[in-house]
Amino acid sequence: MLISRDYIDNDLFLDLSKEDFWDNVDPSIKEMVTDVKSNKQFKVALAKSIGGVFYNKDIISEVKTDTWENFVSSIKTNKKDVTPMFLGGKDSWTLGQLMEFWGHGLVKQDYSIVEAKKYFIDNDQDVLKFAKNDGPIGVFAQRIESMKKDGIINENAATASYDDQIANFASGKVACIPQGIWAVSLIKEKNPDMNIGFAAFAPMEDGKKPVVLSAEDSTLGIPAKSKNQDGAKAFIKFLLEKENLKKYSETLHLPSAYSDVDSKWIDNPEEYESVIKDSVPVGFTVFPSGFSGDDSGRYVQAFLSGQYKTANDFVKAYSDAWNKAWDDSK
User: Comparing 43-47, 91-95, 286-290, 314-318, which segment has the lowest mean pLDDT?
Assistant: First the structure.
C-alpha cells in the first residue's frame, strides 16, 4: 500500500504506533516506516526489499567491498567475453536506483534512517552537498565515468534494457549486476542452477562504508475513515503471526521484516543476512514532486550516452533539476 507524505499530512491514515505490531520487527524497518515529522508509524511492513550487487560465483569467487579500488579489481575477469558489470540503462529506473544507493548512499550512511529522510525532505544542501563537484553526485559521476572508460561496464549501458541485464547475467556473459532481490526469481527462471552470490554496494568514496538496500516491503495501513478499524487491526495482527509471516516470506522470496521469523526465503539466506549485518542499511530516496527516481535515472542515462561533457557538467544539471523540483513543490 502506498502511504505517501501527503496522505499522512492530511490525516488520511490511522496512527499505528501504539498497536502491538512492533515486537521483534527489524529495527531498521521500523525506522523506515516511521514518519519523519511526527515520529509515528502509519504503516506496517510484512517483508523487506533488499538490494546490492549480485554476482556469478562460477566466474568470480568474491566481490570485495572494503574499498572502491578493491571492488573494481575483484569483479574483473580474464575472460574476454565476460563483462565485469552490466547496466540496463534503457530502463531509467535501474540507473535511478544506482544513484539512490551508490550516490545518495554516501549521505544516507552517515545518519540514522529517519535523520537521512528528514535531510532529503528538507533538501538540506548543507548536508546533501549535491551541487559540489566533490559531493556525492560528483563522486558518483566520476566513478561511473571511470568504469565506462575502463570497460568495467557494458558499452551499451545507456541503451541496454533491464531484460538484457537479466538475460546476459543468467547466460554467464556478465560477472555481476547491481540490482534488487526482485531480480533473482527472473534470473532463476532462465538459469535455475545458477550459483548467485550477493554483496553490498562498495563505497565510492574513501573512508565511507559499504551499503545495502534494506527497505520496507508489502506495507499495510488503515484508512482513517475505515468503517471497521477493529477488524482491520485484527486482520493485520493475523498476518503478523509468525507462521503467516514465514509463509508470506517464502512464497514471495523476500526476507521477513520480523527478526524472530526463521524463513528459507532463498537458497542461501545466511549469506544475505551476513552481508546486511556487515553493511549500512539504507532506504529508498524521498524524491521531490516532479523529480522521480526515473527522472534521476534519466540524468544518469544522459551522462552515460555523452550528453554531458564532464562529470562537473552532470553535477550542475542534476543538482539544478533536483533543487528546482524541491522549490516548485513548496
Answer: 286-290
Closest CA to 284 of 103, 122, 21: 103
Instruction: Look at the chain and count its residues.
Output: 330
Residues β-bridged to residue 56:
196
* CATH code, 33: 3.40.190.10
Task: Work out how many domains the chain is built from and give that number.
Answer: 1
The pTM (predicted TM-score) of the whole model is 0.92
Q: What is the pLDDT of residues 81-91, one digit of tens each?
A: 999 999 999 99
CB of 127 within 8 A of CB of 107? yes
Q: H helices of the chain, where?
A: 5-9, 27-32, 68-75, 92-98, 105-108, 113-121, 125-128, 136-149, 162-170, 182-190, 229-239, 242-252, 269-277, 293-304, 311-329
Q: Which domain holds residue 231?
A: 5-329
Condensed to tens digits (0 to 9), the pLDDT of residues 18-41 reads 999 999 999 989 999 999 888 999
The residues near 239 (Cβ < 8 Å, ≥ 6 apart) are 46, 220, 245, 248
Which are the contacts of 147, defined by CB distance < 8 A and separation ≥ 6?
72, 85, 153
Q: In the predicted model, what is the mean pLDDT of residues 280-306?
A: 94
- Nearest one of 69, 108, 88, 135 to 211, comparing CA atoms: 108
Neighbours of 163 (CB within 10 A): 12
Residues 236-290: pLDDT tens digits? 999 999 999 999 999 999 999 999 999 999 999 999 999 999 999 999 998 988 8
Cα(282)–Cα(109) distance, integer angstroms: 7
φ and ψ at 225, to 5 degrees? -95, 15
Measured distance CA(105)–CA(79) in Å, rounded: 31
Residue 1 has pLDDT above 60, yes or no: no
Mean pLDDT of 222-246: 97
Closest CA to 251 of 237, 261, 238: 261
